[in-house]
Amino acid sequence: MPTVKRDTYTPDSLLSVAVRVFNERGYDGTSMEHLSQAAGISKSSIYHHVRGKEELLRRGISRALDELFAVLEEPRAREGRAVERLEHVTRRTVEVLLAELPYVTLLLRVRGNTETEVWAMSRRREFDQRVAELVKQAAADGDLRSDVDARLATRLLFGMINSIAEWYRPERAAHPGGPGGPAPEAGGAGTSSAEVAEAVVRTAFAGLRTG
Amino acid sequence: MPTVKRDTYTPDSLLSVAVRVFNERGYDGTSMEHLSQAAGISKSSIYHHVRGKEELLRRGISRALDELFAVLEEPRAREGRAVERLEHVTRRTVEVLLAELPYVTLLLRVRGNTETEVWAMSRRREFDQRVAELVKQAAADGDLRSDVDARLATRLLFGMINSIAEWYRPERAAHPGGPGGPAPEAGGAGTSSAEVAEAVVRTAFAGLRTG
């Protein structure tokens, strides 16, 4: 029988627990009972905070989307040559992904058919399209190579960025070289958010090859 | 009640159905009953071909792994400068991913705890490590930029490659500009396997930016 603790949750701290459980079990595989067990409070206590698990999903995804769309409003994303704006958006998107890793992971894994999931997928496409417009403008300016289709370039860029969610572990970055845990996997250990963002920008825009 | 047809399956055609169902429902979410319904033959007919669903998983994953490891044995993957071998392996890995899309997708989604899944993840790591060695050698030769960590570069390269499985739809490539279906998404429509492979090589090695 799980220990039931006094409900001292804030909206943010309860959301944090719920998003972790969604990412571990999948949204469809998560019940209010699972959330109750993970939070250590009763289901009725959770219903005191939210109407149900879909509201937690919506809040978790909103947090990721709000941060991502805010990047597009930053001055360096709005002013200057398209290719510079694109590089800024790429760098900042990686930084948001790493700073808000559980929330962006939740967004990236959305596949389902609830109203919230359909909305999330549509907002995610909207973000991708905003970036795709930058890619097209940069290509029209002659700043991107013309022998890679702009739509395909956008896909590959997001492929590289989004895949980071599959291997990046922030606790490694926080404790580089620290004791314990399994052997570090390639590129995961001791790599800061800014380093990963810079590596993505260099690789995607300048390429890995010298000369 | 599903129509039960005469069992005319070969090992390959039954595997093809099973892998499609695994990718749609997830391996854990797939029962022998689901496989029986999708194949239109009885469960006992399926047991005539295989001992159970884990054998189908193992065969599906083996098909992907055999093709991927075969790339590493090709002459252009074994002879010449490391950076050239790495580019060849990158191009051919994309081609194998697209030619064997359902099987490689199954491999990439493996997460679980059965013996077969643990084996698959270990073989996949082995493949990644073989490529990581090429990256390190190419960096040591001075052919890769030194300001992106080799392990991180390997991660980003595989991130770009593996993400293709999430959006590439072969039927679009087979019927470019054909009628019907939803509006094509970025980079997915009418793009051949060789075009995608070339775009990945150009982006990852030479970068998107001109000059």
UniProtKB/TrEMBL annotation, chains A, B:
Start-end of DNA-binding region: 31-50
Comp. bias intervals (Low complexity): 183-193
Gene Ontology molecular-function annotations: DNA-binding transcription factor activity; transcription cis-regulatory region binding
Keyword Transcription: yes
Keywords: DNA-binding, Transcription, Transcription regulation
Annotated Pfam families: TetR_C_24, TetR_N
Protein name: DNA-binding transcriptional regulator, AcrR family
Domain annotation HTH tetR-type: ranges: 8-68
